[in-house]
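Notebook, student rotation project (T.W.).
Task set for the rotation: take a protein with a known small-molecule partner, predict the structure of the complex, and write up what can be learned from the model alone. Partner molecule chosen: zinc ion. Sequence and SMILES entered below by T.W., checked by me.
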Amino acid sequence: MLPIRILAIPTKVAETVRSTMRAPRYGFPAHAEAGSDAAPCRHCLRSIDPGKPGRILFTYDRFDGVEQLPQPGPVYIHAEPCLRYQEDGGFPEELRGSPRTLEAYASGRHLLAQEHVSDGKFEPVIEKLFARPEVDYIQVNSTTAGCFTFRIERGNRAEAREQKSA
Ligand SMILES: [Zn+2]
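Predicted structure of the complex:
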């Protein structure tokens, strides 16, 4: 398996939402709720237990930090502070059991390929998508809800770019 980086939303975004209860950049009101189903927190990439007033819903641009043109959508984070998922932590085990869609993009938001994974075997699909040198990053979304979950980049961007231009 080639080295990959798992990119959860930045800690600054999570902290801003918790302190202001507004969506960064948009200013739309965020919403604290208990929830009746388990949803992944986009910051720690762990499951948020349903039934407790434990999650905040807010509007987030899934291309924030990587592209000029935004695509806002709803995401959840833990209402209480949590630790951002480690970038070198590999595919998040807590998300392996739910169907995810992997979208491979070239810079400029060009969607090159889309794969649905429902058997938990994400690594071979990630490897296959990154084998295409024109793929710059992969977005992982919920297949059933369509919401953005996290982004994956190659572990060594500099090396990847060199290979691309070689
Ligand atoms: Zn969390």
